[in-house]
Design goal:
about 100 residues, mainly alpha, 2 domains, two-stranded antiparallel sheet, 4 helices, about 65% helix
Length: about 100
């Protein structure tokens, strides 16, 4: 298996040693797990951004969307177990119109 080295200052090294010992793993295993977690998180972030860009593209192509504040209120109600109507799909012009 190919390897690479990571140079750590003494403070970072001490933190890794402490964290590894608290978890009952070797410093090497701790760093491997940390790298795997960072890669997973990075991939999830990339997927989230791609989904947001696709939603934006869909909005631009269709001219339709849902009011963000209304959707947030709907989702809060849903989490609280309160029945409420899902916000309607609207044209971009309506969504961008000044609110009174």
């Amino acid at each position: 298996m190919p390897t690479f080295s990571v140079k750590l200052d003494e403070q970072a090294r001490a933190k890794v040693l402490l964290a590894a010992s608290q978890r009952g793993v070797t410093p090497h295993a701790f760093m491997v797990q940390a790298i795997e977690s960072a890669v997973t998180r990075s991939n999830e972030d990339d997927a989230w951004v791609a989904k947001a860009l696709q939603a934006r593209q869909n909005l631009l192509q269709t001219g339709l969307g849902v009011d963000g504040q209304a959707m947030a209120a709907y989702l809060k109600d849903k989490v609280r177990g309160i029945e409420s109507q899902r916000p309607p799909v609207q044209g971009v012009e309506q969504l961008l119109a000044p609110r009174s």
